[in-house]
Amino acid sequence: MKVGIDKISFYVPKYYLYLDLLAKERGVDIKYENNLGQKKMSVLPPNEDIVTMGANAALNIMKHENDIDLLIFATESSYDQSKACSIYIHKLLKLNSNCRSFEVKQACYGSTAALRLALNHIIINPKSKVLIISSDIAKYGLNTPGEPTSGCGAIAMLISQNPRVIEFDNFTGFITKDIMDFWSPNYLNEAIVDGKSSIKHYFSTLKETWEIYKKASNRNLNDHDKLCFHLPFTKIAEKAYNQLCRLENHEFNSESVDHGLIYSKEIGNTYTAALYISLISLLDNFKQDLSDKRIGFFAYGSGCVAEFFSGIVCKDYKKNLFTKVHLDMMSNRQSIDMNTYENYYNYSDLYYPKDGSQLTLDLQSSSSFILSEINEHKRTYMYNPEYEKLNIQKQAIVAES
Ligand code: HMG
Predict the structure, then answer these.
(1) Distance 23 CA to ligand 1 centre (A)
(2) What is the 239 CA–ligand 1 centroid distance (Å)?
(3) Hey, is 324 helix, strand or coil?
(4) pLDDT above 80 (res 333)
(5) Are residues 155 and 273 in contact, defined by beta-carbon separation less than 8 angstroms?
(6) How confident is the model over 50-65, as pLDDT tens digits?
């Protein structure tokens, strides 16, 4: 049976910060574009969160989808230890009640864990469809080396039999290792990171999982037309690919990775969503036909779990992409100044109530879903009342309701 991604889309909020501005403000004599490969980072306004971003990402792919019986939400930015954020999204997207829904976590690897689970679910239940949503806020301390690798965003992908975008097989190389390169204790607002160690383990697990995958699949680097990597910052993909080329005595060809980096250079790290934003970037921006071409994927989640796997691009995949929606979203974003960035950065820590009191949030938003209120420790979400007026994402189910 053929199984894989039938539809895939992503969402980023409207606001971004130029990293040149950040470097200037922090007194850092570096162009972040040169060392990290990053131009901008997405910034989350106070009335959006991982739920609204995730629901937004799914809007494009939800039209005429009534058979979803499993919703998996991958995140490492969850705000509740018990209730899965998938339940809010299930309601916002009006999914059938006859649907399992839960949240998974293993740093940035959570989305790939969800994908492997979903593929097996479809093999056992061929008529079913699985919706995977990955949504994250990559937040490092202000004025730390991690800060220029911040960002936020979400992806949604529909997994089914006879997919129309990417088909996967079962040859994968995966590995788990107990290391402390990046972690987020519950009582802290930002991750703790040992940057150098995280990069070292990213590269070492790439080599280890590649070797396992290569042996299992009997494929070499030549069998892969393109490669997509987990992208904490885009420069890492060029270095990772270079390492694979040296290992395999393969000629370095930047075309193998470049198109997968276009969106992330302008967004920053999105943790669980990053690898799949790279895939969307490649499919949207590579103009030639990729039908029947093999793409290699490297997923890395600090802590750590890593996996190398691959997929074949389906015939006619271009008809099933949301390229125009994505390009419009990216070009309609708005630059903010340092003051607004720091206000948005601090907003949830300073103003989201921790004592059960009420906070009403601004309803002005370009997002289709809004976090409208926090009261009695509960978050309330709503459809954007301005939505009908905003001439965007016209295909959305919300507009039909
Ligand atoms: P840093 O201290 O800013 O940079 O931290 P550095 O001193 O390591 O320098 C970085 C590179 O810039 C070096 O190049 C310098 O030479 C170069 P390299 O030796 O690597 O080739 N450089 C310059 N280049 C041009 N012009 C200049 C200049 N100066 C220096 N003037 C770091 C960078 C990425 C470590 C930091 O931003 C960080 O800690 N980020 C967060 C952690 C991270 O992103 N880790 C990546 C791997 S782990 C991962 O991907 C998982 C993760 O997504 C979390 C999860 O799984 O949930 C993070």
Answers:
(1) 14
(2) 12
(3) helix
(4) yes
(5) yes
(6) 999 999 999 989 877 8
List, for residues 240-275, the tens digit of each pLDDT value: 999 999 999 999 999 999 999 999 999 999 999 999
Please state whether 162 falls in left (phi above 0), alpha (psi between -120 and 50) or beta: left
Identify the residue whose C-alpha is closest to ligand 1 atom 25. Answer: 35
Give the predicted TM-score (pTM) of the model. 0.95
165 alpha carbon – ligand 1 mean position (Å): 33
- Closest-lying ligand 1 atom to the alpha carbon of residue 29: 31
d(CA 313, CA 165): 6
Pocket lining: 232 vs ligand 1, CB cutoff 6 Å: yes
Q: Whose CA is nearest to atom 46 of ligand 1?
A: 199
For residue 298, give the nearest of 132, 156, 111 by alpha carbon: 111
**Would you say residue 392 has pLDDT above 60?**
no
Q: Alpha-carbon distance 258 to 92, whole Å? A: 35
Q: What is the pLDDT of residues 225-244, one digit of tens each?
A: 999 999 999 999 999 999 99
Is residue 234 a contact partner of residue 267, using CB atoms and an 8 Å limit? no
Q: Say how many CA atoms lie within 13 Å of 182 toward its Cβ.
A: 26
Let me know if 65 is a catalytic residue: no
Q: Which of 162, 195, 146 is nearest to 320 (CA)?
A: 162
Selecting among 90, 121, 201, 230, the annotated active-site residue is 230
From 65, 85, 108, 147, the catalytic residue? 108
Catalytic residue at 108? yes
Q: Which two tokens stand for residue 14?
A: 């409207």
